[in-house]
Write a structure and sequence with these properties.
Elements lengths: L2 H41 L1 E14 L7 H6 L8 E9 L2 E7 L12 E7 L2 E7 L14 H13 L6
Parallel strand pairs: 3-5
Antiparallel strand pairs: 1-2, 1-4, 2-3, 4-5
Length: about 160
């Protein structure tokens, strides 16, 4: 057999083995995440909060309690995570926020939030109203392009 074919087969076997290992590791991590999500769902409470600030910041810069920082793995202390600073009653807390709802959290407004420990899982308006993502204003250029497309019939009129 030619050397090139042997090298190609060895590389192919290594890649297939790597994919098999990643498949099983991914399944294991997926099961662990499902268990954690179920635990969060069972422990969540609805609380009225005043959102002071929200931003993505490094966990070590978030001014979390020492007990929380002691439990964090060293690798994850430098990762950026969505954090929300809230006032719950007389206390000011820093909570981790779910990535899915981070953009929906209004700043400097009072909301009813679903909280599980130090994790913000859901947000509703103060009187049960749904909070929607604010639409960004389009630039003048994009407005002109859309208007031209509507006139040309390339885009349906709204």
């Amino acid at each position: 057999m030619p050397k090139g074919l042997i090298i190609f087969l060895i590389i192919l076997v290594i890649i297939v083995a790597l994919f098999i290992v990643l498949y099983f590791v991914g399944r294991k991590l997926q099961k662990r995440q499902a268990e954690q999500q179920q635990m969060l769902e069972s422990n969540k409470q609805t609380i009225s909060l005043l959102v002071i600030d929200k931003k993505r910041m490094k966990i070590k810069d978030a001014q979390l309690p020492a007990a929380v920082m002691a439990q964090m793995p060293k690798m994850s202390k430098n990762m950026k995570a969505p954090m929300v600073k809230v006032k719950a009653g007389p206390q000011i807390l820093t909570l981790f926020c779910d990535e899915k709802i981070f953009d929906l959290v209004p700043v400097k407004k009072e909301v009813k939030a679903e909280v599980s420990g130090m994790y913000l899982m859901g947000v509703k308006g103060i009187h049960g109203t749904q909070i929607t993502k604010e639409k960004k204003k389009k630039s003048k250029f994009k407005q002109l392009v859309e208007k031209a497309q509507e006139k040309a019939g390339a885009k349906p009129i709204k």
